[in-house]
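On clarity, I found the account of how folds are encoded harder to follow than it need be. An entry of this sort, consisting of the sequence and the corresponding backbone structure tokens, reads as follows:
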Amino acid sequence: MANKTSATGTAPVVVKYKKFGIVAAAVVAVGVIGICAVFALNRGRSGSLESAMEVVTSDAAAGGDLRVAVIRMDAIQGGAVALKDLRKQKESYETRLRDELTREQKALEKEKAEIEKSQDVLSRDALQRRVVDYQNRVAKLQQDLNDRAQSIEVSFQKALNDVQEQHLDPIIEATIAKKNLSLVIDGRFARVGPNTENLDITDQVVEALNRKVSSVKMETPKGF
């Protein structure tokens, strides 16, 4: 999701996905396909914020006049049904792309073998034209795979961003208001001691998020 921090001190869900490579080994290497980031989704089943917030209590950890809470964004990423669903959709598109690469690689390897066999048969010019045509096919395949891989990531990132802006952020803000919190800290960077009852609000936020949105759909990536 977008890497931003709200004025409330709440660190947003930061979902980082490592670039994956898809390699075609032929006469000319098809190279590694990188994936960039940015985020889209057509919302599936979605409930109201009021209904979702019923699972969040008004209790909070207190320290004098300061009311503080901790929220573990990594736990939200792993526990939210909508985010799990999105990851499965992304992986499905990636699998399709890899399967297609395997088929194309076999076809290129076959053509490479045919070119090698024809070296003593074709004229120099004819052989050169065939090699150039082959290299153009490899380059075109590399560009096509790269574009489609990036398109998968763009659709995925848009969907994640929309989940955060349309569902998660309102729930966190409503939780801050309901618990009258002064500060919400990302639990990944917090160090807590004993006597911290009601400090961690992660489970309540996850439950509220699951009640508000449980099914989402990535926008179909270009080329699929």
About this structure: The chain has one domain: 41-218. The CA atoms of residues 90 and 156 lie 6 Å apart. Strands lie at 41-43, 61-63, 66-71, 183-186, 216-218.
